[in-house]
């Protein structure tokens, strides 16, 4: 049997990747026929994937395991033969990608991860390679970490918010966080008692948060500041989890119009774009709303159901992510916020210094807050430790009552 001379979309799909421009790469391999090989397809837009209207392609004489976008016109392809190829996108459509550089290894490349256009990593059996990409012309291995894991490393992911950090998951049932600045770079953040760990992914919005998946179909949410502690877990499938992706929020605030007829699509009347994730909204009335985003708060006016105007921004009163915000329905000048910095603040928009700390938890992040709808001075704050605190703004820093409700974080 000979290698195919035309691109074939094989039955076994191994990966799909997108970039910020909406382009897609898709990798498939023939692992059931006589001649094992792989094909990488590049699409300009997801709509072209429906009928396999590819922009360019690459045919490998080996099955393929992963690929990543880098630079503007390049991508990296990992082959099961152990080759790491630097491919150049052609100028014309329906053309073969050019292999600009081929880096050969002895063992199968299982997964790739990318920090930026020049720094990447791969996992291979029980070791991890870090590479530098030079001007789209070569691949140089600069660091190898060996034998920290005792079985095959099945997944690796770079921390896009910190170029010194990455995380790995292995068949030895351990997940490790790696800091390349340290003499002993790897720290075990999670150890599953029964099951291999098959995939891992950082939270793209929080450099301390990550998710690990197991062969048993479970997902575990972890935080590197609390090693060996599972913040949350859930059983998703009755089989192994192969790939995960944590999506970034777009940061859009949309004004939607309800249709007259049932079962109809809502109309987007106005779209207000922000740079950061919108965590929570709160409303005073039909025209005045607020949102919390990272460490700042936005106030908006809604104009005749046709536009959204930001009129005030409060920045950096909290020192960590604001997790909850609630408007006082009995006083349009007041709202309250709760933050991962362990503080709850009452805000009065009439004041020169609008924020006053009403409660400071010694140990735990504050995850949610709500006003009493019948008493404008009374409110409730919830913590990551599962506790609830009843407060009164006339007695700041005093807890009127508290109770432990759950053995985990209170979300709403």
From TrEMBL:
<keyword id="KW-0963">Cytoplasm</keyword>
<dbReference type="Pfam" id="PF00400">
    <property type="entry name" value="WD40"/>
</dbReference>
<dbReference type="InterPro" id="IPR052139">
    <property type="entry name" value="Methylosome_Comp_WDR77"/>
</dbReference>
<dbReference type="GO" id="GO:0007309">
    <property type="term" value="P:oocyte axis specification"/>
</dbReference>
<protein>
    <submittedName>
        <fullName>Uncharacterized protein</fullName>
    </submittedName>
</protein>
<dbReference type="InterPro" id="IPR015943">
    <property type="entry name" value="WD40/YVTN_repeat-like_dom_sf"/>
</dbReference>
<dbReference type="GO" id="GO:0034709">
    <property type="term" value="C:methylosome"/>
</dbReference>
<dbReference type="InterPro" id="IPR036322">
    <property type="entry name" value="WD40_repeat_dom_sf"/>
</dbReference>
<dbReference type="InterPro" id="IPR001680">
    <property type="entry name" value="WD40_rpt"/>
</dbReference>
């Amino acid at each position: 049997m000979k290698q195919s001379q035309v691109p074939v979309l094989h039955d076994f799909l191994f990966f799909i990747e997108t970039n910020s421009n909406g382009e897609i790469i898709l990798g498939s391999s023939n692992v059931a026929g006589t001649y094992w090989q792989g094909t990488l397809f590049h699409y300009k837009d997801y709509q072209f994937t429906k009928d396999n209207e590819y922009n360019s392609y690459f045919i490998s004489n080996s099955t393929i395991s992963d690929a990543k976008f880098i630079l503007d016109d390049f991508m990296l392809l990992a082959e099961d033969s152990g080759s790491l190829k630097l491919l150049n996108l052609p100028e014309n459509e329906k053309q073969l990608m050019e292999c600009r550089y081929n880096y050969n290894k002895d063992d199968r490349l299982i997964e790739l991860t990318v920090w930026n256009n020049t720094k990447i990593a791969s996992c291979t059996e029980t070791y991890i390679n870090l590479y530098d990409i030079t001007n789209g012309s070569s691949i140089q291995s600069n660091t190898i970490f060996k034998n920290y894991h005792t079985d095959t490393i099945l997944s690796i992911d770079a921390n896009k918010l910190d170029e010194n950090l990455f995380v790995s998951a292995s068949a030895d049932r351990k997940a490790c966080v790696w800091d390349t600045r340290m003499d002993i770079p790897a720290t075990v953040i999670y150890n599953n008692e029964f099951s291999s760990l098959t995939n891992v992914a950082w939270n793209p919005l929080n450099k301390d948060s990550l998710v690990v998946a197991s062969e048993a179909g479970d997902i575990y949410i972890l935080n590197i500041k609390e090693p060996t502690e599972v913040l949350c877990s859930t059983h998703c499938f009755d089989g192994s989890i192969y790939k995960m992706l944590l999506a970034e929020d777009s940061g859009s605030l949309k004004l939607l119009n309800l249709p007259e007829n049932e079962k109809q699509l809502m109309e987007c009347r106005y779209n207000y774009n922000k740079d950061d994730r919108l965590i929570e909204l709160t409303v005073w009335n039909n025209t005045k709303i607020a949102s919390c985003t990272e460490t700042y708060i936005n106030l908006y006016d809604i104009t005749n159901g046709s536009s959204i105007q930001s009129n005030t921004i409060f920045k950096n009163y909290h020192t960590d992510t604001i997790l909850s915000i609630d408007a006082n329905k009995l006083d349009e000048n007041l709202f309250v916020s709760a933050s991962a910095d362990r503080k709850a603040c009452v805000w009065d928009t009439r004041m020169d210094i609008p924020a006053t700390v009403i409660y400071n938890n010694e140990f735990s992040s504050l995850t949610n807050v709500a006003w009493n709808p019948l008493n404008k001075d009374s409110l409730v704050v919830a913590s990551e430790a599962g506790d609830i605190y009843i407060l009164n703004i006339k007695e700041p820093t005093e807890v009127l009552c508290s109770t432990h409700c759950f053995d985990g974080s209170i979300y709403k």
